[in-house]
Amino acid sequence: MTTYSLAIHGGAGTILKSQMTPEKEAAYEAGLARALEAGEAVLRSGGSAMDAVTAAVCALEDEPLFNAGRGAVFTTEGVQEMDACVMDGRDRSAGAVAGICGPRNPVRAARAVMERTPHVLLIGPNALQVARDAGLPFEEPEYFFTQARWDALQETLEMRRNGEESDDPARRHGTVGAVARDRAGNLAAATSTGGMTAKLPGRVGDTPLPGAGTFAENAACAVSGTGHGEVFIRYTAGSEIAARMRFLGETLEDAASHVVMHDLHDHDGSGGVIAVAQDGSIAMPFNCEGMYRASVREGESPVLAIYRTP
């Protein structure tokens, strides 16, 4: 098989459909389309799955609409702490960063950890130093600030002061990610996030944890998750999908749907995943109102969606 497949997401827990305007919907779809094209351009030219998912996630991190990079949410202390991870399906190589702010594209910092160190996950100043040593571009805090995320923080803090807690999943999670199969048959996954609005400083979710929010293994699938990270961690969502494929012989669609609709959903794990299998098939299940998502397979037209489709 010599064709490629690519899927991306801009997070589950989308704007409620009742509050979505045509202008907002068009903006989100345009952002997804740009990211999908960035990743597909790599695959179309014969590039690797790893390069494709990196390119796609960089495009999503550059888009302020999504909760990663420039659109990251704020902690209770009013700062931004970003997590990211990449994983290579050829040998399960992985690199991740957590709780950082500075690199323009956290996903590239994660890849630098994979390629330039013997480690998988770095945090704090040393993670930033690896990114600097790799020559990655840095930005000042003002670059990452968006008024919408700041307002969301203030609203959430005010609700907590009043003894309330929002049931809007868009406040609880938001992530970007990409999974790909290249023409050589290799799989890769990349995920990046600002975390949860008004999270405690130092909180780390599932995104930078291989096997939870990010996973890739050529023998099974590549997965990028978005949702209530603590539940994704406890149920090792990414690796569980691969395990169901390997040990139960399930299809990608069946394995991903079971994990999202049962393992996660039944334990307050609102969210979804995008996944691609060795045969190039794609699955994008979610158990909440919507998930910003797009996919393409070589020779086919791209598919973009936010809410459930008939």
Summarize the structure.
This protein is an alpha+beta fold. Helices cover 36% and strands 23% of the residues.
Could you explain the architecture of this structure?
It is built from ten helices and twelve strands. The chain has 310 residues and is α+β, with helices and mostly antiparallel strands. 36% of the residues lie in helices and 23% in strands. Helix 9 (237-248) crosses helix 10 (252-264).
Unreliable runs, pLDDT <50, ≥5 residues? none
Overall shape: it is globular
Find the count of extended strands (DSSP E, 2+ residues). 12
Distance N to C terminus: 30 Å
SSE string, helix = H, strand = E?
EHHEEHEHHHHEEEEHHHEEEE
What class do helices, strands and sheet pairing give? Answer: alpha+beta
What proportion of the residues form beta strands (DSSP E)?
15-25%
Question: Main attributes?
Answer:
310 residues, single chain, alpha+beta, eight-stranded mixed sheet, globular
Tell me the layout of helices and strands.
Blueprint: E1 5-12, H1 22-44, H2 49-61, E2 82-88, E3 93-100, H3 106-116, E4 121-123, H4 124-133, H5 141-144, H6 147-161, H7 169-172, E5 176-181, E6 187-193, E7 214-216, E8 221-227, H8 229-234, H9 237-248, H10 252-264, E9 271-277, E10 282-283, E11 290-297, E12 303-307
Parallel strand pairs: 3-4
Antiparallel strand pairs: 1-5, 1-11, 2-3, 2-6, 5-6, 7-8, 8-9, 9-10, 11-12
